[in-house]
Queue: 2 jobs
Job 1
Amino acid sequence: MTADQKLFDNFLYEATKEYYFLYGTTPNFSVKDIKFSADKTFTATIVMKVEGLVSYDKDKNRFVIARKRFENNEKLADLLLPKYFESQIEENIFIASFLKSEKNSLVTERTVELVLPEGSKLEEISPAFVSKTQPSSWYVDFGGGNTYKAELKKTEKGFILKETMVINGGAPKNLMDEKSSVNVLQSLRDYTAFEIAFSNEKMKPDALTETVEHKVKSDFSGNWAFSASQSGQKTLTFTTSTTPSVQVTATARIDTSLTMQVSLLIDHGWVKTGMFSWSWRLKRFEASVSPTITIKPLLDINVTGTLERTLSADLFTYRPSPIYFSISFVPVWLQFEFTVNAEVYVKFSAGVSFNVSTNYSHYASLKFTYDGSTWNYSASRNASYSGPSFSKPTAKAGVTEKLSLPFTLSAYIYSVAGPFMRLSPWLKAETTVSTSNRLDAKLTGGLTLSGGVQMAGWLKAFCDNLPSVEYNIWTWETTLYQTSFTY
Amino acid sequence: MFRKLMFVVMILLFGALFATQYTRTITEKIEVYDNGLEIITRQEKICQSSTQITTRT
C-alpha cells in the first residue's frame, strides 16, 4: 500500500509538473480519476480539476489563458525554463533507452482542444512571454531525426493544437553541439508558447480561482536523481555428469542472499548565452550499484577413473518484480537481474570421491561517473570466508578440481541500460601424493570483480557514444585450507 | 548454392531496413466553465508496435 502510494505520488508530481510548465498552475487528481483499459490498445484516461487556468487582464478588460508565460515574471522564468528543458530532455533520455536503437522510434500525436465557456468571444491569439513566433506553427529539431512539430487552429469555441513528436534511439546532434543547442533550446522555449484572449459577459473576474504552485517551483537542483533497493534469496543445487565410460558427478550447491542498491543521476550543465537563452550539455551522469552477497559453493565429486574435463551449466536467472517510476507521463521500470552460471574443471588420476566447501561473504559498491569528457569509477569492496572443509578422499590420487560461479548483477532501465557488476567466486581443490602413504591437500579460493554501465539511446550518445564500459576492479586469492591425509 | 546465398542476402537486407515504430496518441480536452472551474480530460493510447520499411540514409 505504501509502495503504491509512493508510486502514485511520484506519478502525480511528474504528470502535474508538465501542466505547471505549460499553464502556470497545478491540476489535481486522485487514483479514482484514472481509468485503464487494455485490449489491443492500452488506454489511460485521467480527469483533472484545475484552478487558476484563466486570468483577467484589467487593462484590456478581457480574460486570458496562456501557455508557457511563466507568470510573466523574468526572475521566475530564468529559474523555471532550465527545469522545463531538463524535464523534456530527461523524458526523451528514457524514451530513447526504451527504443534501444536509432532504427526504432516513438511517434507521439497529441491533440489539445480548448473549449471556452458558452457565450465567449475569442478576441486574439498572440505569442506568450518572450516568444516572437507567430502562434500558428512551431518546429524543434533536436537532430538525428528527433523532432517536435505543432500546428494551432482557431475554432468557434477556442482552439485545437496538434503536436507530432518523433523520438528515436539515435543521437540528438543539434542538442549535443554547444552552439546549435542554443537554437534548439530557443525553439523549445517558444514551442507552443501562446496566449488566447477572450471576453465573456457571464464571467466575473472576482469569481476566478487562484493558481496552484507546483513543488518544482522551488526545486532548482539542476539534476535528476533516483535510487532504489531490493533484496532476495535463492538456493539452488546443480548436478552434472559425464557418461558412459567415466562418470563424474559434480554437485555445486550454492546458497545466496542478495541485497542490492542502485542509484542513477543525470546532472545538467547550463551556460547562459543571453536573455532567456542557454546552451546545454550533459555535465555528469552517474550510475552506482551496491550488492551484498553471501554464497556457499560446495563441490561433491565422485569419479570412477582418470579424467580431465570442463563441465559448465547456466544455473539460473533471478528477476524480482520491477521497480516503476515516472518521468512526466512516461512510465519507466528498473529491472534487477541476477544471473549465475557454473563451470567445473576436473582432473583425476584415479577413481576417487570427496567434497569441499566454504562460505563467502562479499560486499561491493561501484560508482561509474561520466563527467562530460571521460568515464571514471570508484569502488569499495570487501570479501571474507569462513568454515572451509575438505573431506578425506576415498583414494590416494592426484586431483585438481576448480569450481567457478560467475555472477552478473544488473539494474537495467527497461531491461536495456544501466549499471552492472560481474563477480566470479571460485574454489579450487588440489591433492598431490607426497609419500607412499601421505596425500597433501590444498583448498584455495578467491574472486574477481568487474563492473560497468550498459548504455543505450540518447544517454549513450551524450556519454561519448560508448555502447558500454567495463572495468576490471579487483582480484582476490587466498589459501583457504591446507592439510595432509594418511593412508 | 546461389539461391541460398541470395536468400541470406535478402534476410540481411530486410534486417537492416526494417524498423519498429511505436505510436502514442494523446487527446486532451480542456473545458473552461464560467464559474472559474476548469476540467482537463487526458486520454492516452499506446498502440501495438508496427513494423515498417524506412528510407533512412
Job 2
Amino acid sequence: MLMLIALLLYAIIGTAIAILAKRRVLTDEDYFVAGRKVSGIVSALTYAATTYSAFMMVGLVGLTYFSGVGALGFELFYLVGTLFLLSYYAPKIWKLGKEKAFVTPGDMITSRYGETSAKLMAVLVSIALIPYTSIQFVSISFLLGNSMSFESGIVLSAIIIALWALLGGLRSVAWTDAIFGLFMLTMAIFAVFYSFSMQTTSTDHSRLGELLYVPNSFWTPINFISYTLPWFFFALTNPQVVQRIFIPKDEKSLRRMVIFFGLFGLVYTILVTLLGLQLRLLSEIGEFPRVSNRDLVTPTFLSMIPEWLGVMIGVSIFAAAITTANSIVLTLSSMFTRDLLKSRSVNAGRLFVVAITTAVAIFAIQRPNYIVDLAVMSSTILLCQLPLLLGVFHFKMGGNISASLTLLAGFSTAMVMFYTKATFGLPISIWVLLVSFAVFFLASCLEKRFKT
Amino acid sequence: MKALEGLIVVLAMCIPFIAIKSQDLTTYVYWCLVSAIYLAYIAVSRW
C-alpha cells in the first residue's frame, strides 16, 4: 500500500515537473533536443539519469556481491572511457550539431555517408535498444511484484514514459531526469548508510578473500574484457547519449555537462559497489542471508530494512528505469521520424513516441527469452556503428555502400556468434569491432575504386 | 597525444590485474583514485 502511494506521488511530481519544464514546441529541434538551450547542470543530470538505469541498484549491487571489486573496475572502466571520449569528441559533435542543425546521430551519418546507411542504422539500433528498454519495464514490474500484477506494472511504466515524453519532448524528459537523478543518488547514500548500520560485529574486509582483488575466479582477464569493451565506447555508440551532446546551450554548458556527469557517475558507482561489498561482508558474518541469485541481493536487502526506506529506495530504482527508458524512447522516435521517414513533423515524433512505447510494452509483457538475449547483446550490437562514427572525424574514406555493409557485417557477426556461441576464445565484442573495422576499410577502398 | 592519454588511462586501470593482490580494499581505493584523478584532469586541463 505504501509503495502504491509512493508511486502515485512519484507520478504526480514527475508529471508536474514535465508540465513546468514544458515550453512551446514549434520545431522538431525544440521537441527532440530542447532547442539546444539546456543548462550544463540539467544536461549533466539527464546524461547521468539516461546512462544509469535500474541495473546500478539491482544488477551492479548483485554483481559486486557475487564477484567483488572487479565489478567496480568494470563500471569505472566505463566511466573513464566515457570521460575520455566525451572530453575529446563531445566538443566536435556539439559544434557539428549546431552548425548543421543535427538532431539525431543519424543526421551525422547522413551528412557524412548518405541516407541509406542512416536508415539502416536506425533499424539496427532499434533492434538492439527496444529489447533493452523492455528489460527496464520488466525490472520495474518485478520490483512492484508485491504491489501490483506484472502486466499492471508494465502499463504503468508505459503511461509514465509516454506521458512525460509527449508533454514537452526532451525538455520535460531532461527535467524529470535531473530531479529523479538527484533522488537516485540520495537514496543510494541512504542505502549505504543503512547497510553499514546493520553490522553489529566488528570485522575486517579480509573475510571477503578473492573478492577483494582481480583476477579472481569470476573476473578473469577475458571475462573482464567481455564486460568492459562494449561499455567503454557507450558514449559514442548509444544514440540516446550521443543525442544529449547536442542539447547544451553553449560550450561552457557542454564542459559542465561532462564534468558533473563524471562526478555523478563516480559517486554513484562508489556508493552502489560499496553497498554490494558491505552486504557480502554481512553475509560472511551471518548478519545478512547468503543470496545465491545475484539479482535478488537488492530485493532481499529492501525486505530487511524499514518499510518507508525500502519503499523510497524502490521508487528510486523505479525512477532510474523510467529515466533511462523514456530517453531511449524519445531518441528512437527521433531516429524513426528524421532518419527513416525524413520527416520534420513534431506530431510524427509524438506518434512514434506512442508507437515505440507500445512496442516496448508488448515486448515486455510477452517476456520471451530472446528479449533478454538481445538486451544483453545490445551494447555489443551497437559497436558496429563505431567505425562510422569515428570516420566522421578521422577517416576520409567511406560512402553509403561501405557504411551500410559495415553495419550489416558487424550486426550479423554479433547475432551469429551470440546464437552459435562460436567465439573462438575471444569476446564477441572484439570480433564485432574487428569485422566492422575490416569491412569498413575494405569496402571503402572498393567503393572508391568503383567510383573512379 | 590524445591516443597516448587514452593508453595511459587504460594501463593505469589495468594495474590491479598485474600488481595488486592484497586482501583489503587497496584495489577498490586504487580504482576510485585513478578515476577521480582522471576526472580532475579533465576538469582542470581540458577546454
